[in-house]
Amino acid sequence: MYLIDSHCHLNLIRSNNKKYNINTILKNAKNNSVKLILNISTSITDYLESFQYFKKYINILYSCGIHPLNKDIKNLKNIDKLEKIIICNKNIIALGETGLDFFYSKSNCKIQIDIFQKHIYLGKKYNKPIIIHTRNAKKDTINILSNKEFQSCSGVIHSFTGDIEMARKLLNLGFYISFSGIVTFKNALYVQEIAKFIPIDRLLIETDSPYLSPEPHRGKSNQPANLLYIANYISKLKKIHIYDMSKIIKKNFYSLFKIN
Questions:
Q1: pLDDT value of residue 21
Q2: pTM for the full model?
Q3: Does 97 show up as a binding residue in the annotation?
Q4: Taking CA 232 as the corner, what is the angle to CA 94 and CA 187, rounded to the nearest 5 degrees?
Q5: Which residue among 164, 193, 220, 238 sits deepest, i.e. has the most Cβ atoms within 10 Å of its Cβ?
Q6: How many Cβ atoms sit within 10 Å of the Cβ of residue 105?
Q7: Coil/strand/helix, residue 260
Q8: What pLDDT is recorded for position 221?
Q9: Where does a divalent metal cation 1 bind (predicted)?
Q10: Is 217 annotated among the ligand-binding residues?
């Protein structure tokens, strides 16, 4: 079986939990059939540090972007830096984590929207999909992605917890939907219903490590190896064998991120 963790933060696992080094993380992942990992950056510094630490590992891929809650969004010069990094680093297969998060703060909404749109512009310019974080920003996220200027952009909504209406609109715009360990939580019935609703050819799975550990490890530090629990849970929701589902999700991942 070939599982792909489409969204995790290896640098944060490394810094948050000293008992795990990268070799341990990858060994645990391999033992649970997780063969490929997309390491998600939340700032330019995060990408540069991650690539420096993990560049010798061929089963780690990279994104680069500025998270909406990262302090770097306040400096527009960082978008110029991001573009230069995209040009100079062919290992970057996606832009992000970008998007909108109005849960913690609405004081910088305009800045978040501006930086999000600039990520989308760069994604179109360099033919890179975008990895989208959206929280308490459903209307603005959909409005931006529905803009004719951005409609040819591709990407994925990570750790989806929106409603059916939002999911349907995103699917109509051509986006993929990714589910994290939240889908396994006993109180996440609505997320489970949405996982059933999403067509399997538009589905991705992720750990969002070190966050959102699935059951039975909820509340503990997460790692890519735990993707197996998420895959198994969703396969049961969708009533498809996990091996068959893993093949389809691999195809989805390769298609979205243009991997030969």
A1: 86
A2: 0.96
A3: yes
A4: 90
A5: 238
A6: 11
A7: coil
A8: 92
A9: 7, 9, 97, 208
A10: no
Tens of pLDDT, residue by residue over 46-96, are 999 999 999 999 999 999 999 999 988 888 889 999 999 999 999 999 999
The tokens for 234 are: 């969703």
Q: For the chain, how many structural domains are there in total? A: 1
Could you give the count of Cα atoms lying within 13 Å of 3 in the half-sphere of its Cβ? 26
- Across the range 90-114, mean pLDDT stands at 93
CATH number of residue 213's parent domain: 3.20.20.140
Q: Residue 54 to residues 11, 75, 84, 220: CA-CA distances in angstroms? A: 9, 27, 21, 24
pLDDT of 3-40, one tens digit each? 999 999 998 887 666 666 899 999 999 999 999 999 99
The residue range of the domain holding 251 is 3-256
Asked whether residue 7 is marked as a ligand-binding residue, the answer is yes
DSSP secondary structure string for all residues of the chain: --EEEEEE-HHHHHHH-TT--HHHHHHHHHHTTEEEEEEPPSSHHHHHHHHHHHTT-TTEEEEE---TTSGGGG-THHHHHHHHHHHH-TTEEEEEEEEEE-SS-STTHHHHHHHHHHHHHHHHHTT--EEEEEES-HHHHHHHHHSGGGTT--EEE-S----HHHHHHHHHTT-EEEE-GGGGSTT-HHHHHHHHHS-GGGEEE---TTS-PPTTSTTSPP-GGGHHHHHHHHHHHTT--HHHHHHHHHHHHHHHTT--
Cα separation, 185 vs 203, in Å, equals: 19
| 133 is an annotated ligand-binding site residue | yes
Q: Which two tokens stand for residue 29?
A: 């992942």
User: What is the pLDDT confidence band of residue 260, given thresholds at 50, 70 and 90?
Assistant: confident
Q: Is 158 annotated as a binding residue?
A: yes
